[in-house]
Amino acid sequence: SVSVAEAVATNPNAMDAIEAAAEVDDASPSFLQEGSSALVSVRRLRGAPVDGSRDMIVNLLKGQGAHLKSTLLTALAMQIAKDPFAKIKTLIQELIERLLQEANNESNQKGWCDKATADANQKRDYAAEEVRTLNSEMAKL
Questions:
Q1: Using the 8-state DSSP alphabet, how is residue 49 labeled?
Q2: pTM of this prediction exceeds 0.70
Q3: Residues 15, 54: Cα–Cα separation, whole Å
Q4: Which phi-psi region, left, alpha or beta, contains residue 28 (left: φ > 0; alpha: ψ -120 to 50)?
Q5: Distance between CA 36 and CA 15 in Å, rounded?
Q6: Residues with Cβ < 8 Å from 41, sequence gap 6 or more?
Q7: What is the pLDDT of residues 28-67, one digit of tens each?
Q8: How far, in Å, CA of 98 to CA of 104, rounded?
Q9: Segment 77-113, tens digit of pLDDT
Q10: Inter-axis angle of helices 14-24 and 37-44, to 10 degrees?
Q11: How many whole angstroms separate alpha carbon 62 and alpha carbon 35?
C-alpha cells in the first residue's frame, strides 16, 4: 500500500492510469483493488522519475477517498503528501544558520582585532616619537 503510493507519486504516467481506471470502474467500492488496471499500471510503472505530479495525485486520492468513503485512500493520500526530505531540509537550514552565525562572530572578532591592532600601532608610533624627542633633547644637553 505504501509502496503503491510511492510508485504513484513518483510516476508521471500513473495519474493518467488512475484517472482512466476511476472512469472505467466508477461504481466499484475502490479503484485500487488487486485486479484493477490502475494498480497493474502502477506496478508496471514503478521506478519512474519524480516530477511535479505529486500534488495532483494527492488531490485525486483525497477526492476519490471522500467520494468512495475510503479511509485507506485518504490515509494513502496523506502518506504521499508527506515531504520525505523535510528532515533533510531542516538540517540544511540549521547548518546554514549556524554557518551565518559563525561568520558573523568571526567578522565581529576580526573587527575587534583590527581595532586593537590599530590602537597598538598608534601607541607604538606615539611612544617611538616620544623616544626620539627625548633623545634629541638629551643630545642637546
A1: P
A2: no
A3: 9
A4: beta
A5: 14
A6: 13, 14, 17, 18, 21
A7: 444 444 444 444 444 444 444 455 577 888 888 889 889 8
A8: 10
A9: 888 888 778 788 889 999 999 999 998 888 888 888 8
A10: 170
A11: 21
